[in-house]
Give the backbone structure.
Amino acid sequence: MKIELGIGASTQQVTVPDGNVAGILTPNEVTYELTGEAEVRRALENPIESPRLKDMVSTGEKIVIITSDITRPVPSYVLVPPLLEELYLGGIKAEDITLVFALGSHRKHTREEMIKLVGEKVYEEIRCIDGDPSDCVHLGVTSRGTPVDVVRVVAEADRRICLGNIEYHYFAGYSGGAKAIMPGVSTRDAIQANHSRMTDARACAGNLKDNPVREDIEEGAAMCGIDFILNVVLDEHKKVICAVAGDSVKAHRVGCAFLDTLYQKKIDARADIVIVSQGGAPKDLNLYQTQKALDNAKHAVKEGGTIILVGSCKEGLGERVFEEWITEAKEPGDLIRRVETDFKLGGHKAAAIAMVLNSAEIYLVSEMDPDFVRTIFMEPYATVQEAFDAAIARRGEDATVLIMPYGGSTLPRVGE
């Protein structure tokens, strides 16, 4: 059987004997009537537990739209034009609207990247800026002790509209919703305090009930205030197939429920070998982002098995603290001990990789230097086929194989 996997802007093929394939975890078949901008317009006209946006706003109000940065697949160029039309219907002028790219802990954009994200018309029509975490307003502290420090232009706006993409998140449960505020436009200290709860067993992909990370995010965002969200679910081709708008929590939950019907995959048993890809660019720009697919794959691999992680990582590791931690560690256990005693944002993903290495070996197919990959406790390969051939030689000819072509979005669950 030949399987095609995305890596960067291209693809690679791997041939796996039919008898070894335990399953290919692709999205479930779901029915939907509208896609793209038409679905976005439907959501805006039918908000969940909220008035229409045009009926909420008033002429003269300062509006901030918070959307994702270049590391996220949110199709802002599809979402923003109909959103602006809705605001204009409510009497809002273009000069009173600011679009803020939520950087979290990521790098700033170039002008060209901003235009790519929202389209040239939107970029010229309204003010588009990166969030500046060095200029924030302190709004208080959550019940769990997380400081609520929000980028000033967002905190001081009359209305805040949050855009996002809903997919599984390995400790917040799901992306989207209030995550546009935290971590999107929060300080590093605030993000760090919130994310330190990732070691709680309830902080895992697909879980919202009693998830301390998600609850803390939504408490902090409520202190800032979110007037309206517009979130989307994308298919494997990054096409909008579901949009939800309205209340920041209730609309988000409807989107999460739809995501489950699409991407939650029941499996009969864990496999000896799991081949997992982020699906290609932009989700695999660096190892920091590609780690998401690895974390989902850990739910599908047997104890002591092999995960073949496929991601371009053409920008390398992708985050300063992540790089420091993973390159300073002498063994994976160093990272786990470090995150338990001195949590640092960025370092947490290094520790998450180490936790996977506790139970499985990782073969990395990427553009990174092979000698460097070995120093970060993974085995480097140039092609998926080479990695698979090595894995089958190690695990035996009868090894079971699960393939996850869209690993960042697909969440395996062993059958009830």
Notes: The chain has a mean pLDDT of 94. Residues 76-89 form the longest helix (14 residues). Residues 185 and 285 are 21 Å apart (CA to CA). The chain has two domains: 2-27+268-414, 36-262.
